[in-house]
Amino acid sequence: MPRHATFLNMNRSAILDSLALAPLRAMHFGHSRAALLRIGIALTVIALLLASWVVHSRFPYQSGRGVGYALGLVGGLLMLGLLLYPLRKRLRFMHSWGALKYWFRFHMLGGVVGPALVLFHSTFQVGSINAAVALTCMLLVVASGLVGRYIYGKIHHGLYGSHASLMELERALTREIDTLAPTLQRMPELKREIDRFASLVSLSPVSRTARAAHFLCLGLRRIFAARRLRQLLTSYAASGADRIGASHADLSALMIMINTTLLAAQRRAQFSTYDRLFALWHVIHIPFLCMLVITAIVHVVAVHAY
What we know:
Elements: H1 12-20, H2 22-26, H3 29-58, H4 66-80, H5 84-90, H6 100-121, H7 129-155, H8 166-184, H9 188-201, H10 208-239, H11 241-244, H12 248-305
């Protein structure tokens, strides 16, 4: 019999303890790496904010010479290099110039590091109209890039993975439901709750406003559904340990499978909308990027000419 359908006997208090600590026990190596990455990013942001405060208040260098000039030069070259990724995708003679994922990594890195260096180059001061215009375009590109990165992750397999398809997501959802089915036969309340969420995400409201609200609220509804499912699982354990008996690992694995199923249902329901948003984002982001390059060139010419 499959592992998820075969539970070991244990006492009631141990079951309740395992449910309370399930999120911690469920954290595997990948989750630990993701948590460490988030901590590293948070510490980096804090350090940059402190450094920006020092630069803005103490003026340790001038924008037009020395360190300030070098920061602007490197930052400008990195932002100019942002054009290489779309060119690599579209120009046939560049298709053999290395894997596309490495160009994408450089594009993302340059889109963050380049603007940050330019901001430190300016000492967070705007001294002219052309500098203000260039700075505005740069911030628009950065904001657009962050939005695009978020949408990209919703329709691709991982950060540098291939584009997903609706059929793939439907197969993944079916696979998760089939995996849970043997266990849920013994827990009908859990099955009804999962079916209720599956019916909820498949709704298609008539009005545009209602569709937008439904799309935006799916994540929150999934969180509430997961909480109710955990409470139901706790109730099963509390009311009849002999009925489901479970080991720590079994309960953790069951909740992981339930969360994976809910996520698969949410992703399948939101995929088409994210796909359309990503196509629309391209229409907006590319002009912003071209505006940034033009205004940056004008700014450099103006600074050196006058």
